[in-house]
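Incident log entry.

Two folding requests arrived from the same account within the same minute. Monitoring flagged them as a possible duplicate submission, but the sequences differ. Recording both here for audit purposes.

Request one:
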Amino acid sequence: MPTFSRTLFIAALVGVMALAGCDKSPKIDAADMSLGDPKAKIEMIEYASASCVHCANFNNSVFPAFKAKYIDTGKVHYTFKEFLTPPVEVAAAGFLTARCAGKDKYFSVIDAIFHAQTEMFQTGDMRGVLLRIAQSAGMTEASFNSCITDETALKALNERVDKATKIDKISGTPTFIINGKQVASGEVSLQQLDAAVVEASK
């Protein structure tokens, strides 16, 4: 039964080192995952890592209310940009798993990973937890093993992260950008995002 390989760890590490600052207008790529109306007047981009505790806190505690208030109502188009933070092999495997599950299941798998993050870190059974999530999304153990060792997919992930660090100047997660302006980084409340949305609406 394969485990996370050192090759996966080293490859995923590429692109993690970042420069300070923030590009004012990061571009949305076809590879990015999005929710909501693409024609919405407000675009929110979140850079997040599947192994980031603050990202999990946002996903579990703030995002459901934000999604219901702004994304589901067509007011905000939300784009999720993948980033890698330690342990990077877990973040990389999480993102690869979500993509292998299919575009229609991507966000549900990411949500499951964030909700299971504490369990992964407390038990140390990161592979086992990710496998369980993959299987709940319809993947077999064989397809999961193939997915997290897919060098082509991992290379593409690393390229996205490298762009985030070198071009978009992202240095930490979660980072939130609304209509081209960085409005928050780290722990963020719904009230902070409310204020940013109001400002962007002017």
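Request two (distinct sequence, not a duplicate):
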Amino acid sequence: MKVIYKITYPNSKIYVGQDLTDSINYFGSADSALIAKDFSREERRRFTITREILWESDTASNAEVTRKEIEYILLLRSNDPLVGYNQWPKYRTSA
């Protein structure tokens, strides 16, 4: 099973990613240093994150999964630094 998931951190920021193996123990490859900047030492002592599966497929190709991941990143704006931790695709303001 291939999945697209959303991780939600205690500060309500999110990360959207894909897992081609549906590992129950996989929590993404978000930039740890970027996330760490948002939490004090005390906040880092204990916190809970949530992993939610947004989409799954037994038949999608890896390319299809990547397209779906991008779709969700853009839909949820997880690449907007105010909303989430995805750094790709690059967030562009609509100014």
